[in-house]
Each structure stands twice: as structure tokens, then as C-alpha cells.
Amino acid sequence: MRERAASRRRPGRLVVEAVDGLPEVRPGDDLAALIAARATLADGDVVAVAQKVVSKAEGALADPRPGESRQAARRRLARAHAERVVVDTPWVLITRTRHGLVCANGGIDASNVGDGALVLLPDDPDASARRLRAGLAEATGTDVAVVITDTFGRPWRRGQTDVAIGLAGMAALDDERGGSDRDGGALEVTEVALADEVAAASDLVRRKASGTPVVLLRGLARPSGESGAGALVRPPDEDLFAHGRGRLAARLREAATMSAPAGGGAGPARWEHDDLAALAHAAGGTLAAHPDGLVVRGDRLAAGLVAAGLADQGHELAWREDPDGVVLLVGPVDGADDDTRG
Length: 342
Description:
This protein has eight helices and 18 strands. By secondary structure, the protein is α+β, with helices and mostly antiparallel strands. It has two domains: 15-60 and 122-233, CATH 3.30.1330.100; 249-333, no CATH class. The strands form six sheets. It has a five-stranded mixed beta sheet with strand order 1-12-2-8-9. A four-stranded antiparallel beta sheet has the order 15-16-18-17. α7 runs antiparallel to α8.
């Protein structure tokens, strides 16, 4: 059962301040001690910590195989750590991690790492937040909340923002259901993603090149509760877009058809694909038949849009690059063609 948190009172003044002077974090470092030595903490503070330094301190790093590019290693590791691949396109791989996070490339980071390594997500971000909170309490004697943040893209919106992937010391959601708006109307659906708001606010005072992975927020009334950031993850059975479908399904089901090749065999032989061609054209590319499926000429965005359209219909999809362009290898519909959950 979801934990209900007491609604917060909005503060009159909120201070958001980067904690400067942290050294480069390495595996085995005592991150709580490093933060405590450079931040003046008080009871009620919220400490937002970038996932990357948490992962580094915990040794959640991986190296590419000999001769393997970082990008190829990133995709391989994202698959290996995925609960399920949502969409695989030439320009991005979207997975649902075993933490329940739906994100690009499994949340694996390749920036500001050094030595060609890749940074994985913490094994259990909520447990990491609890350990950090306990370490800060021991080092400073203060009662603070800890939010572990990571940068995510968002459905339907451009750009990225930080969200909470680990949490300790406060509730993730500020549940206002059952309350009233200023006109006395009942609030029936209002749940504020407070931990995500903390994460986004923390990113306002740091940049990737700034070397300030820790931010202090003071003046925020913390809702009581210990739900962890997992409370922010929508269960798959409530998620209309859990399978990467929905955006194009209605249009494509009417216009895109496939027929089996003469004499059997794997894959379609003929395509009526006006809508798929339109997707490629929208990104400045072209679509044509190929002995193995389809070929998209143009940049990876064009190929990605066509791949998204195919995945939207439930087709199994793989791809490769060759001199003709990006070749999409298309398997049969997986039986979920009429799945209207999205």
C-alpha cells in the first residue's frame, strides 16, 4: 500500500546552495565524510547528491571490452542491466532498469568519468541514500534528508532535468488528495513529486562542468515518511506507455500493412508504408525496401523515427548500419498488436 505523507506547507524562503570544494570521488571514498567536511548542515536540511559520485564511491564502474567503443559498451551494458528493452533505435536505447526506471541507455553515464570508464547506476539507490543520511548524522549530529539525483529526459517534452532516484529522510510524494483548493473544491488527484522537485531545483546551481555534485536545500518543510524514491515509479500495470507504444499506434494501424514473403521465410517482402516514409521524410531522410527489411537513408534521427513507428506497432526490431544507410531488421508482430494499453 502506498504510504500517504502529510502535506507540506510551502516555505516563505528556500535557499538552494552548491557545496563547493569536493575532491574527485573515487571507489571506496567515504562520501558522507567528504560532504560533512565541506557543508555546514542543520536539522531539516535536504542534501541533494548527484548519482555519479554515489556510483563512483560505491565502485559502480565498468570498462569497455578490448576494441569496444564506449558507445557500444554503453548499449551492451544497458541491455545487460535491463529488466526490459522498451525501444531500441539507432539513436537511443530506452530500457526499464531493474530499479523500475525507464530511461535512455540504462542510465549509464559516459561524461566526466575519465579513463574511458562508464558509470553504472547504484545497485540500490534508496539504500545508498539511507547510508549517506546515516553517515551525515554520525559526522555532524544533524537530521537531514538525502536525495540522490540523476538527469532524465521526459516523455512529450524536450530537454532534460534532474529527478530523484534515491531518497531517505522524507516522503517522495506530497499527497494533497482529500484536501481542498482555495475555492473549497476537493482535491482528488493532486500528488506533488516533491523529491523530483528537490532534484530539479538542485540542478539550477550546478552544471556538468562545474564539479559541484552536492547541493544543500534549506527551508523546505519535509513531508514525513520513508517511502524511498521507488514511490515515484509508476507500476507497469498503471503505465499507458510502458511498452513504448501509443504515440503512433492509431495512425499506423490504419495505414501501414505488411505481407509475408512468397514461399514463406522470415520477415516481410512487401511494405505499404506511406506513414513510415513520412516519418523518415520529417527528419530529412528517405525510406526504401531492402532484402533484410527496410533501409533508411539520412541521419540517425530519421532511422529512429521509423524504428519508433515500427516499435509502436509491436514489431520486434534490430538494426545495423551499412553503406546504404541504416537497415532495420523487422520481425513479426509479437501478438500485442491490439494491445491498447499503449
